[in-house]
Amino acid sequence: MEETQNGDPGKKGISKKLIAIIVVIVLLIGGGITAYALLTGSDKAQYFKAEKGTFDFMKDQLSQRYEPELDWSKQTKENPTETAFELSGEYNNPSGGYGMMDPSDIINNSTLNLTAQTDLEKKQLYTDMKASVGGLEIKDLNFYLDADQLMVGLPFLDENLQIKDKDVGKLIHEADPTFPEGETIDFDAFFEMAKGLPEKDADYLKKEYLTEIYKDLPGDAFESTKETIKVDGKNFNTKKLTFHLSEQETKDLLVSILEKVQGDKKLQKIFKEQMEIQTFGIDPSAFDMDFDENIDFDEAIDNMFGKEIDKGIKEIKEAHIPNGFTSDIWAKNDLIVKRDFSIGVGENKDDTNTLSVKGTNLLSDTQQKFDYKITGSDDTDKEAITLTGDLSWKDNKANDSIKLVAPDETKLSYQGKETLKDEKRDFERVFSVTDPYNDNYSLNWSGNASYDHDKMSSENNFSVDAPDINQDAFSLTVAKDAKTIKKVKTPDTSNVKDIGSMSIDEIEDYFETDVAPQYQKWIMGILGAGGGLNGL
Q1: 309-318 vs 14-31: helix axis angle to the nearest 10?
Q2: Paired strand residues for 274
Q3: Helical ranges in 425-498 per DSSP H
């Protein structure tokens, strides 16, 4: 690669922050508002029509290829389901044990079984686990979670252990006084997280921001010309569409968006709700998430949308964006064939960080090829990442290759082959990393998956290939069987120990006087007197 590093670390500060903000805005424009663009004959509309066409084309291709998987994913979100996993390993010991206990005797005769039942609508999760380790059987280990409580069943206890979400914070604070008193964990957040952003919130963001950004973009910021270009040795008659904002127009756009965000109470409410879901309802300051420990969560949110945005607006107004923002695309039949995007931002004209994205696409129903180079540079350094891919899907057969090369010449690659017949997919996938010293590490994943309306099954085999590890040395097999069910199993509540209502001292006493003796009796019963691992 022609890019070199001069040994001087890249500068941090306003330039890179602003570039990040602008890139996010560009992605929103390209991938979101396009659905709302007034697709007329204007250059502005044609630009976003090409963006929308390219985005929708790739989305449709993936949807068609992985239709069985997407249908099953929808099934699990809308219906109660049960999924049973069985994990087993195979180890070929090159030393053969040399008279000692051979680990392969244990690994090759061990399995782990996990059954999970979920109902996202009713907010219920039940799991049951059992294991066989060289003939040693462990079973009756389960837990149940709903929006209010967690219950755990252990094989050596007659009673189930229970803790309610409202009691978790109290116990954590008692064990660690640095944890804020009065905080609670919201188990409901686990299920909300699995569902993702509510559709009504997503629609609001699209309408209020993506559509409005599109409307605010000046029509004279776009222009078009006809141009013949060569990509991968082929000539294409394209329409070149240029989207350019001057320095002041770029600043005005960014400032207007931040000002809208700053005054949008509904957006702030959505943001706060999502933050609470990600932290299970606990104030993020309790997790050292860059929140001032002297203020509560609500104050932190107000500060973020107040002082922090004020600071951002001030930095944008004072920033140096010498060439404004420019994005060129070359489109044919509403699909982007070539792209060239660049922007430079700095605190002054002598301190500018530049980001450029240049690449090509060749998209058809049977093959999608792309070749991109993402370059970042300042006054001392220039680094680039290259991303190339060749995806094919013909006659329900796939042959895929993707490669990413980092600035230090580290290469990440993916090679995959798939066939789909009668809702059954067979596949071989290899994820590889090659470092600058040409050492190659790979994860090999092969197997099959079958889908039949309200049920599915799969078998997955994993192995690792590395300089000191042969891929035949160890492998992991994961078998999966899933189906829809009528309802999630609930644990027995006739004999429950509510540890949430106890103090830390009471819990310690309970585990010492009740749990520990029962555990010792149980484990000795499994192992047998003096049995240990030698008896397996």
Answers
A1: 100
A2: none
A3: none
Please give the single-letter amino acid code of residue 77: K
Determine contact, residues 427/447, Cβ cutoff 8 Å.
Answer: yes
Q: Is 305 exposed, middle or buried (0-12, 13-18, 19+ CB in 10 A)?
A: buried
- Three-state secondary structure readout of 181-192: CCCCCCCHHHHH
The mean pLDDT of the chain is 85
DSSP structure class, residue 175 = H
Residue 229 CA to residue 345 CA, distance in Å, equals 30
How many C-beta atoms lie closer than 10 Å to residue 360's C-beta?
A: 20
What are 155's two structure tokens?
A: 């094989």
* Residues 360-417 pLDDT 10s: 999 999 999 999 999 998 878 889 999 999 999 999 999 999 999 999 889 999 999 9
Q: How far apart are CA 365 and CA 65, in angstroms?
A: 11
pLDDT digits (tens, 9 = 90+) for 210-227: 887 888 889 999 999 999
Q: 187 and 147 in contact (C-beta within 8 Å)?
A: yes
Tokens standing for residue 381:
């350094």
Cα separations (Å) of 510 from 152, 175, 497? 15, 16, 10
CB-based contacts of 505, cutoff 8 Å, min separation 6: none
- Sign of the CA dihedral running 309, 311, 317, 319: negative
